[in-house]
Amino acid sequence: MDDSEVEKLAELSFEETRVLGSLIEKELTTPEYYPMSLNGLVNACNQKNNRLPRTDLDEDEVKHVIEELRIKRLVHRVDLVGSRVPKFQHNAEKELDLIKAERALLAELLNRGPQTTGELNNRASRMFSFDGIADIEETLQELMDRAPSMVGIMDPAPGQKEKRWYHKLAPKPVVEELNDGISVYVPGPDKRIDQVEEMTKEFTELKDEVETLRYQLREISDEFKNFRKQFE
Q1: Pairing assessment for the beta strands 183-186 and 174-177 based on DSSP bridges
Q2: 10 DSSP 8-state letter
Q3: CA 45, 48, 52, 55 torsion-angle sign
Q4: What is the DSSP string of 183-218?
Q5: Strand, helix or coil for residue 130
Q6: Which has fewest Cβ within 10 Å: 9, 11, 26, 165?
């Protein structure tokens, strides 16, 4: 996996991380129902347990996300013999070069956001049998030491003591304080929105410049016509 491919993967949207995380989770927890149908994947993305923040994605939205992930080679369609319903599976094992233990931790970070080592030890154990917190930390450290790094550590949020791990496949999460003083982690802003806004601003500025040039050209043309009349 070269650096250019990783840079593209670092631009996953929140919806893309939710679909990818759900596919990895179901591969490890319910292999008998994997690969997944579109309906099953929608339900997995929107399930109320093991998901933060919760979502209410519909089939069209998940279809669109699947296509985006297929372009990035992280998901592909599987047509099983005897089944009329197309199925989908992730390609994280090959595309991201992840062993099972790493996929389990990444799935938790994709589905629930930043978490402490202890939280990951409790939650990821349903996908892989780790040998305690030390094993979790060693696996996370290996993911962080990659070039480029796939996970990072966030400083404690206000009112909290422990640092939390987060994945780097999308913009870094941000801390949001609620009215009751509780701090929560929310997905970072989608950089593509800022890019669109910047392009819109540049287009507006360019349009204004063209209008100014057209006005100046019209003035020059009128002056030239008046100059020619002096010799007619």
Answers
A1: antiparallel
A2: T
A3: positive
A4: EEEEPPPPHHHHHHHHHHHHHHHHHHHHHHHHHHHH
A5: coil
A6: 11
Tell me the per-residue pLDDT of 69-115, one tens digit each, with 9 for 90 and over.
999 999 999 998 878 899 999 999 999 999 999 999 999 999 999 99
What does the radius of gyration of the chain's CA atoms come to, in whole angstroms? Answer: 25
pTM metric for this prediction: 0.78
Helix (H, G, I), strand (E, B) or coil at 150: coil
- At residue 50, the 3 state secondary structure works out as coil
* Cis bond upstream, residue 158 (ω within 30): no
Report yes or no: 53 and 187 within 8 Å, Cβ to Cβ. Answer: yes
For residue 72, the one-letter residue type is K
Structure tokens at 143: 């993911």
Q: Which two tokens stand for residue 123?
A: 């939650």
Q: Give residue-wise pLDDT tens across range 14-60.
A: 999 999 999 999 999 999 999 999 999 999 999 999 999 999 999 99
